[in-house]
Design brief:
- 38% of the residues are buried.
- The protein contains eleven helices and 28 strands.
- The strands form five sheets. An eight-stranded antiparallel β-barrel has the order 1-2-3-4-5-6-7-8. Strands 17-18-21-19-22-25-23-24 form an eight-stranded mixed β-sheet, sandwiched between helices. Strands 11, 12, 14, 16, 27 and 28 form a six-stranded antiparallel β-sheet that branches.
- It folds into three domains: 2-61 and 71-94 and 103-148, Beta Barrel (Lipocalin); 167-259, Sandwich (Immunoglobulin-like), CATH 2.60.40; 263-540, 3-Layer(aba) Sandwich (Aminopeptidase), CATH 3.40.630.10.
- It has helices at 2-16, 148-154, 239-242, 263-267, 272-282, 292-308, 357-374, 396-403, 450-462, 485-488, 520-538, and strands at residues 29-32, 40-46, 51-59, 72-82, 85-97, 100-116, 121-128, 133-141, 167-176, 179-187, 194-202, 207-209, 215-217, 220-223, 226-233, 248-256, 313-320, 323-332, 341-347, 378-379, 382-388, 411-418, 439-444, 467-472, 494-498, 540-541, 543-547, 551-552.
- It is of the alpha+beta class.
Length: 554
């Protein structure tokens, strides 16, 4: 019978080791070694530091004294984890006395690993140094699984190309008996596991991050989406808060899904392949007389890309030379009450003699890719993405847009993509051109430096392979040959990014201006740098926020 049970146990183990799960906090709790009655492990997964702590109740390896009495033993194990495996030091503590401030000694006496197959089964491999004991044994969860499986399920994201920030909404906030009680709804399109942090905000704007040890329930990490989330804050026991001596506050909750952690990860979201696809779709004469069909097809493509990112799209129409031009506009609204506006644009029309891959499908593609990346974020300031029309007829679209702005407009800066795809790397066709090089020209106005300086900093730090040539407008009329010029005229810090146009490429306004002539790696580097520039200035985050009405604490 014993042999049969052992066989069944091993069969059960063999079925579970075929699977693995990422270590998550839901694995914390009581675990037993089913082969040895009376042994147990208390496992605690500490996610911010990727640590596992284990308390292991077991027995001495040999009998001691008369009657075969076996000593009880407690060991601890602690270490880091990666994926489904935790690598741990086995530690024995000696000295000390209960409730006495006496020194103790922690001695590493061996090594252990725990690999988790699912939320209820794992394998412990251990080795004690001095006692020459080692083995591999199965572990089985003893305490109920509260939320491990929910975390595992939520870690299987929907197969989408983009990732939207979490959404959080307060449904009730109340103060009673030294507690602030908060109920909220939490959602995430990709079912990411989230970290919830809470802040108290004084009426003067000062912020106080509430420590997790003064918060209870659905707070910290991990928290999964749901409509019935709640937490409460023991504010009378929060000594740090009491020192502030605040009584009138608001509560802010921030939900972070950990999608990106730094600027490098943001700029690396830019896709060279998507840029290539855009240019391939748009190239072709795009002119109201030369090819109105391709022009309208390009307009529709731009609109579809913007609508696909769930942004509101505006068509700003104007008349010039008897035909209607259309500026196509999408806006990512900032969440600050005093939000400023940043623009990024590329004109999409051509002259009648060229398919316009570089001039300016490259710039329009850059604007669209920036839109795809940045629309995945929330931001303090607004970002507006614009495809200007009739640039080739004298900057008509941008002039009209600028003329419609109120005198107290809130535009803090602009990035204008004007031909960003051609490099001269020694090929004979461009060797004799004035700007026969591989840099992007970063041309700023004579009165502002913020956009240019930020672009240079992002490029040098996060896109070091991009060569940037910084230039200041000195009145040369060539510096006004694109859609930034009307914005210089109204005092906007507008940045003119260009590969040099006819000063570098022999394909300018010619039938040969096609995708196969472009350096798409170079173009991708430019878009990455522009995305990082706007992400910095607009202060983007991948978090959802919710702010309560004013509260008066008791």
């Amino acid at each position: 019978m014993k042999k049969t049970l052992t066989t069944l146990l091993l069969l059960c183990i063999s079925q579970h080791v075929l699977a693995e799960i990422e270590i998550n906090p839901g694995l914390s709790g009581s675990w037993i070694i089913p082969e040895t009655t009376g042994q147990a492990l208390m496992i605690d997964v500490i996610t911010p530091q990727n640590l596992v702590f284990v308390g292991w109740f077991t027995f001495a390896p040999v009998s001691s004294g008369q009657g075969g009495f076996v000593d009880h033993r407690w060991f601890t194990a602690q270490g880091s984890y990666d994926g489904h495996v935790a690598e741990l030091d086995l530690v024995q503590t000696s000295g000390g006395l209960f409730n006495q401030n006496l020194s103790v000694e922690n001695q590493i006496i061996g090594r252990a690993t725990i690999s988790f197959e699912d939320c209820s089964h794992a394998t412990l491999n251990y080795s004690f140094d001095d006692e020459n004991l080692s083995s591999t044994v199965p572990l089985q969860r003893f305490s109920n699984d509260v939320f491990c499986q929910s975390i595992v399920d939520s870690q299987t994201p929907q197969q989408t190309e983009f990732n939207l920030p979490p959404e959080i909404q307060l449904t009730d906030v109340s103060v009673n008996n030294g507690r602030v009680h908060i109920e909220y709804r939490l959602s995430d399109a990709e079912n990411d596991v989230m970290d919830i942090q809470a802040y108290a905000i004084h009426e003067n704007g000062q912020r106080y991050q509430i420590p997790l040890n003064n918060l209870r329930r659905d707070v910290g990490y991990p928290v999964i989406a749901g409509d019935d989330k709640s937490l409460y804050w023991l504010y009378l026991e929060d000594t740090g808060f009491q020192q502030q001596q605040w009584s009138d506050i608001r509560i802010e909750l921030i939900a972070d899904d950990g999608f990106v952690d730094n600027m490098q990860e943001i700029v690396d979201l830019v896709s060279e392949q998507r840029l290539i696809n855009d240019i391939n779709t748009m190239q072709g004469v795009r002119h109201h007389q030369g090819n109105s069909i391709q022009l309208e097809s390009t307009r529709n493509y731009i609109r579809q890309q913007m609508q696909g990112r769930q942004l509101p799209v505006e068509n700003q129409s104007f008349i010039y030379q008897g035909s209607t031009g259309v500026n196509i506009i999408a806006t990512l609204d900032g969440n600050d009450d005093n939000a400023q506006m940043y623009l990024i644009d590329g004109h999409y029309d051509t002259v009648t003699t060229t398919p316009g891959a570089d001039d300016n499908a490259s710039g329009t593609a850059g604007m669209l890719e920036a839109m795809r990346v940045l629309s995945q974020f929330n931001s303090k300031h607004s970002i507006r993405f614009i495809g200007f029309d009739k640039e080739e007829l004298g900057l008509r679209g941008s002039r009209f847009y600028a003329s419609q702005l109120p005198s107290n407009h809130n535009i803090a800066g602009m990035i204008n993509f004007e031909m960003i795809g051609y490099t001269c790397r020694g090929q004979a066709e461009c060797a004799d051109f004035p700007n026969a090089d591989t840099s992007i020209y970063n041309i700023k106005s004579s009165f502002a430096t913020t956009l240019s300086d930020t672009f240079n900093t992002i490029g040098n730090t996060h896109v070091p392979a991009l060569k940037i040539t910084a230039v200041t407008d000195d009145g040369d009329p060539n510096f006004r040959r694109s859609d930034h010029a009307p914005f210089w005229d109204i005092g906007v810090d507008a940045l003119f990014l260009t590969d040099g146009a006819n000063f570098r490429t022999p394909h300018y306004h010619r039938p040969s201006d096609q995708l196969d002539k472009l350096d798409t790696e170079f173009m991708t580097q430019i878009v990455k740098t522009a995305v990082g520039t706007l992400a910095t200035l607009a202060e983007v985050t991948h978090s959802g926020t919710a702010l309560s009405e004013p509260l008066t604490l008791q």
